[in-house]
Amino acid sequence: MEEPDERRVLRISKFLAKHLRHEPERIGITLDAHGWVEVETLLAAAAEHGFTISRAELDQVVADNDKQRYLIEDGRIRASQGHSVPVDLELPTVEPPPFLFHGTVARSVAVIRVEGLRPMTRHHVHLSPDRETATRVGARRGAPVVLAVDAGAMHEAGHAFRLSANGVWLAERVPPAFIRFPG
User: Fold this and answer.
1) Per DSSP, what are the bridge partners of residue 37?
2) Number of domains, the chain
3) What's the rounded Cα separation, in Å, for the pair 173 and 112?
4) InterPro entries given for it (predicted)?
5) What DSSP assignment string belongs to 105-124?
């Protein structure tokens, strides 16, 4: 199989994110309660809306995605996390490591100091297991600022954590008392 060029891979990944996480109705698909849709239904809907994706391309984009954003199981596909549409990913609560990290930008820090980390348009706050990943996440919006989250203390205080299939830690919110700010 000929490897799709990087632009094509990026276009397919963005298409999947838009329609498996945020706007499935835009191409006429319906996610089940857990975020799944039949692969063939997705491919047919994409083609009907002028964006043909072969099954081989889809499989390759899912398999090669460095962040493992998507899962294919039993002929169905879903996004691993990051939904703005209501889905239950059926992720159990788990004990987090002592510290997790969140990448952001300087212009957001003042609000975070007051309000903590909120999910904004998503269902959960996304936390990284290491500073390097959080740095990459923060860098998508400008010069990154990495915040340390005292996940162990949060857990002891009764806050729930979930771990997505691709290693992203999820929390409903992070109060400012549990955030360590740089400097």
Assistant:
1) 77
2) 2
3) 11
4) Ptrans_KptA/Tpt1, RNA_2'-PTrans_C, RNA_2'-PTrans_KptA, RNA_2'-PTrans_N
5) EHHHHHHHHHH-B--TTSSS
Asked if 104 and 159 sit in the same domain, the reply is yes
**Residue 167: is its pLDDT beyond 70?**
yes
Tell me the C-alpha distance between 13 and 162, whole Å. Answer: 24
Give the count of beta carbons closer than 10 Å to the beta carbon of residue 115: 12
Summarize pLDDT for 121-132 with one digit per residue, the tens.
778 899 999 999
- Is residue 169 assigned to a domain? yes
Dist CA 132 CA 74 (whole Å): 34
Q: What is the enclosing helix (H) or strand (E) of 100? A: strand 100-105
CATH number reported for the structural domain that contains residue 31 in this entry = 1.10.10.970
- On whether both 134 and 165 belong to a single domain, the answer is yes
**What average pLDDT does the chain have?**
92
129 plus 166 within the same structural domain = yes
Which pTM was predicted? Answer: 0.70
